[in-house]
Specification:
single chain; 770 residues; mainly beta; eight-stranded antiparallel sheet; five-stranded antiparallel sheet; 45% strand
Length: 770
């Protein structure tokens, strides 16, 4: 069991996100798709598949709970709150459990760690006499939250026919379970409920062996639902006076939940919810939120009688009075999908993406998201018509010359041009040199994008021989024949090196295509092309399975493959006849010398402001290596950080702040690194933060903007040197300690900066409080 303290790290109110401190994390998760809600005294907890957020009535704010500030996992399946014990129970897809009580989180991982065949999913959480009953795919688990222990496990069926439990409810004397093969009950006084013989199926039901996805006990009877195989075919039954009969007071929508609150009986359905009160004499059907069509996943009533609705697309909805609704959710992207992330002009763009593992279409229709001024905006089918018909957006690129000009690659429908966030043009075979797939008529796959110094936009266009095109600033297009190296392969990443050569990643293990237009793209007579392979003198890649490429500050090309990392230090030699083979980096770990990440599938490569290398992997999280790649600076994974998953799709760095964004299979999370982009010239006025440094601050103090490799000296007012360092790109950091590793005394400290040549200078002051 572990526990962590809540309410001290990162609580962000609805709306803008606060900028984070150095070496701190923050989530960028969607909060519109909720699945469960639980009213807990002065807090209303709402669960999304990725995290929790809650409304705190004490300060009228929305706050977040996630892996950064205490939760153990992502992929929540159920939550519930027990008024008697004061515990909130949070269940995850892998059967891990968190208990939240009095501002602490306790983790119960017994079920997660237990080896068993089949699903361990926890479907619902019920409470009885301060015990939590977990309805699982393998039975009922009884958890004592106060003692932090698993007490018992009950199973219906035997051998290979163990039944899934979807809900557990209670009468004064018995426990009733809705299962995958009927309603089962057992008397609490019957003896050993661990013995499946203590459980009895209700054979008085018209369909005694059917699947029942919910059951509820109310003063008016026992209610149970049989989910239909098609829309509108659910069957709701009620047991009154010992007899089961159809309950006909509902429509034909699929039912999600039946809940009771004293006299109130609540039914949560696909597009509405209905509750009965006054001894079933009165009812209310909520089928609209103003102009919004509801998709409730769960509804909870608080002590004041207000309804709180977890909606599948509108977040948390509060209703004080019938037909009056208030929508509340923290800011975030619309979805968790993050196939690729790009950084430009101080903002972050995300392509929701999707391709299958073989690079066929995945038909992911989630649009794009933009993070700017500490706020997320999303563009998808709900607000941008083009995404009604265009799916599988795989890349977003902003012109480095005009921040209002954004290009969006789609895997199947061409290239979208946005101007001032509005769709301007869709480029396809009718108005550009882009080509459809050779073997899939009408399928136009666009991958990587890059703009050269002449403002020409270069486009990777796969599945045909003319896989490289460019658009001139005047709007005219031209394509280039890449055969015999590319004929019908998918093309992914694209970059332009310091010599103007175009590097195109050939997916499906195709290596890299390099094209040199010799600075005259309109004249193909002097062009050159070749393929970088695993063969000696032809690139010598560790693998032909190339996933990502990046250019460092010295012009080297770093290549992430499914067998580690390699770097081509002399890309200018590709067509010179001289050796340009890729080199693998030797690293030493635990006394063993090996190639850098040679056993890892490297999915992302990004260079930070200090020319250090960030590598994302498929199964091992993120690695930050030194400038030469030989020294490990950080390794982040699920075991040692809030990283949402060890499967990294993409990485991007917002260079002004140094914040590093990680796109994972479970969503986006960021970490504020210590390196920023170096300034072109040293400015006199320094930005130092935090300043003043308060007594309870134990983090790093940042000093920026600086030129790359600037020398930074910190002295006291008497001129005594207390710290000296070199800028990481455009930023230097200080931990507040002196040269002996001791915390400095309170007072004013002087910061003196000179560039690498000792010519440009800047000064600043830091106030330390103790």
């Amino acid at each position: 069991m572990k526990f962590s303290i809540l309410f001290i790290a990162l609580f962000l109110v609805q709306g803008l996100l606060a900028q984070i401190a150095l070496q701190q994390w923050r989530d960028h998760l969607p909060y519109s798709q909720t699945l469960a809600v639980a009213a807990a005294k002065d807090k209303i907890f709402c669960a999304t598949p990725s995290s929790l957020f809650y409304y705190d009535a004490a300060d009228d704010q929305l706050k977040r709970l996630n892996t950064i500030n205490g939760l153990s996992e992502v992929n929540i399946t159920a939550i519930n709150f027990d008024e008697q014990s004061g515990y909130l129970v949070v269940a995850y897809e892998n059967a891990n459990i968190d208990l939240i009580h009095d501002n602490q989180i306790y983790n119960i991982s017994d079920i997660k760690r237990k080896s068993m065949v089949g699903s361990k999913r926890i479907n619902r959480i019920s409470f009885h006499q301060q015990l939590a009953y977990l309805s699982c795919d393998f039975g009922i688990v009884v958890l004592d939250p106060i003692r932090k222990e698993i007490k018992e496990t009950y199973q219906m069926g035997s051998g290979s026919k163990i039944l899934s439990i979807y809900e557990t409810v209670f009468t004064d004397t018995s426990i009733i379970a809705a299962t995958s093969a009927g309603l089962y009950s057992a008397n609490f006084d019957a003896g050993n409920l661990n013995d499946f013989n203590s459980w009895h199926r209700d054979n008085t039901l018209p369909k005694p062996t059917a699947t029942y996805n919910d059951v509820a006990v109310h003063s008016s009877g026992i209610y149970a639902n049989i989910p239909g195989v098609a829309y509108g075919t659910d069957t709701m039954m009620v047991k009154q006076n010992g007899q089961w009969q159809p309950f006909t007071e509902l429509g034909n929508e699929p039912l999600h939940q039946i809940k009771t609150y004293g006299d109130t009986l609540l039914f949560v359905m696909e597009y509405s919810f209905k509750y009965f009160y006054n001894n079933m004499q009165s009812s209310f059907l909520a089928y609209t939120y103003g102009d919004k069509g509801p998709m409730p996943a769960d509804v909870s009533f608080d002590a004041k009688g207000w309804a709180w609705i977890a909606d599948k697309k509108e977040g948390l909805v509060k209703s004080k009075v019938q037909w009056q609704y208030q929508f509340c959710m923290p800011n975030g992207p619309a979805f968790k999908n993050s196939f690729s992330i790009t950084s430009s002009n101080g903002g972050i763009w995300v392509a929701s993406g999707g391709v299958q593992t073989n690079w066929d279409a995945a038909y992911v229709n989630k649009g794009i998201y933009h993070f700017s001024d500490q706020k997320w905006s999303s563009y998808n089918a709900s607000n941008t018509d083009v995404f009604d018909t265009i799916s599988d957006v795989v890349y977003v690129y902003t012109s480095p010359f005009d921040a209002s000009e954004v290009y969006v690659s789609s895997w199947g429908k061409g290239l979208i041009r946005l101007k001032n966030y509005q769709v301007n043009t869709i480029y396809n075979t009718t108005n550009s040199s882009l080509s459809n797939s050779t073997f899939y008529p009408g399928f136009l796959a666009v991958g990587g994008l890059c703009m050269d110094d002449e403002k020409n936009l270069w486009v990777a266009n796969g599945f045909n021989p003319y896989g490289l095109s460019y658009r001139k600033p005047n709007g005219t297009w031209k394509s280039f024949n890449l055969s015999p190296y590319v004929t019908d392969q998918p093309l992914n990443g694209l970059l332009i090196d310091d010599w103007g050569q175009k590097w195109v990643v050939i997916a499906r293990g195709g290596g890299i295509l390099v094209y040199d237009d010799n600075g005259t793209p309109d004249n193909t007579a002097d062009d050159h092309k070749t393929k970088i392979t695993s063969a000696v003198n032809q690139g010598h890649l560790p693998s032909m399975g190339v996933n990502s490429i990046a250019k460092d500050k010295e012009g080297g090309i770093w290549i992430g493959t499914d067998k580690g990392v390699a770097v081509i230090y002399s890309p200018e030699n590709v067509f010179s006849g001289y050796n340009y083979d890729a080199q693998q980096i030797y690293v030493e770990q635990d006394g063993i010398t090996q190639y850098l990440l040679e056993s890892e599938v490297v999915t992302a490569v990004v260079i930070d402001g200090a020319n250090r290398k960030w590598f994302g992997t498929r199964n091992s999280g993120v690695f930050l290596m030194s400038e030469n790649g030989a020294t490990l600076v950080h390794h982040f994974d699920r075991s040692n950080s809030p990283l949402l998953s060890n499967n990294i799709y993409s990485i991007a760095i917002e260079h002004e702040s140094g914040e590093v964004f990680f796109g994972t299979e479970n969503g986006i999370i960021s970490y504020r690194g210590t390196a920023t982009q170096g300034a072109e010239a040293q400015v006199e006025k320094l930005n130092i933060f935090p300043n003043p440094v308060k007594p309870d601050f134990n983090g790093l103090i940042a000093i920026k903007p600086l030129v790359d490799q600037a020398d930074v000296k910190i002295t006291d007012l008497d001129g005594n040197l207390v710290h000296q360092t070199t800028a990481l790109g455009g930023q230097a950091v200080w931990n507040g300690n002196n040269l002996h590793g001791e915390r400095v005394a309170s007072g004013v400290y002087l910061v003196m900066v000179t560039d690498a040549e000792g010519k440009q200078t800047a000064m600043g002051k830091i106030l330390i409080l103790k």
